[in-house]
Write a structure and sequence with these properties.
By secondary structure, the protein is mainly alpha-helical. The protein has 5 helices and 2 strands; from the N terminus they run βααβααα. It has a two-stranded antiparallel sheet with strand order 1-2. The longest helix has 31 residues. It is elongated, with a radius of gyration of 16 Å.
Length: 152
Amino acid sequence: MGEFNFSPYQIAVMAMSIEEAGAAFYEILANSVDDQRLIDMFTNLSKEELKHKEAFSSIAAFFHQKDLNEYAVDVAMLMQANLNKLKAAVFNMRNQPKNIREALDIAIHAEEESIRIYTEMYNVYIAKFHAVLLAIIDEEKRHLKKLIKTKF
């Protein structure tokens, strides 16, 4: 994968979009099932993704005012690809019959990608944001475990 120049601000804004798309995806899933246990799980996952979005919003605000330098990082392209997949999944869920198993596969893959991307962000961002990123990574890992447990 090639390198692209993105500022930490731009990366945080992309992360906000990923979390927003994830929240929308989980909300659609919550509205597409009848099992109360699944409704609760998807609703909670959606709310947690919105909390992650707020965390990235704070990071973006910090970098927007403090650091406009660009850094050669390869996470931005991964983030954009992940965002595109999530948006396509949300669109497809609105326009096609719901298949919970396929939806769980999409969600599992999205959580795996988020963990990978946020780990790379951790390696690029300044230490000030390491605790926030680690907390988000840990939550994404918990999301992944819930989804895998639900699928099997």
